[in-house]
Amino acid sequence: MRSELKTVTAVRLDKWLWAARFYKTRAIAKQMIDGGKVHYNGQRTKSSKNAEIGALIRLRQGFDEKEVIIMALSDQRGQAIVAQTLYQETEQSIQKRATNAETRRLQRLNNPIPDTKPDKKQRRQIVRFKQIQGDIE
């Protein structure tokens, strides 16, 4: 495979997100843009919007929200290493994702998952407890 991408002057936002490997297909990229999960320079946008170098994109992927600056344009999906050169994540975004990941990790530790499902007796206790809590509120 070639490691360099041809330079283009205009590329649709959904195509750029696909080429930069944020989403696996253009259809998913379009859904995310139309669903308001992608903001272009601080505003909701359409998938047909042309991406520009230097634009700030804020997008959600699962639990994470990333802010990236477009460094180069491409309409071809290439290798992951090459795709990473198309954008630069902001320092604030990296720090925010790290703190959110740490918070999620600590929440998992504070809320352990039981090894087994509750049996019949335990389920009845849970139902009684919820009924008592409902009466108090």
Automatic annotation (TrEMBL):
PROSITE patterns: S4 (PS50889). SMART domains: S4. GO terms for molecular function: DNA binding; ribosomal large subunit binding; single-stranded RNA binding. The keyword RNA-binding applies. InterPro entries: HSP15, S4_RNA-bd, S4_RNA-bd_sf. Gene3D superfamilies: RNA-binding S4 domain. Residues 11-74 form the RNA-binding S4 domain. The keyword RNA-binding applies. GO terms for biological process: cellular response to heat. SUPFAM superfamilies: Alpha-L RNA-binding motif (SSF55174). It comes from the Bacteria. Keywords: DNA-binding, RNA-binding, Stress response. Pfam families: S4 (PF01479). NCBIfam families: PRK10348.1. Belongs to the HSP15 family. This is Heat shock protein 15. It comes from Parashewanella curva.
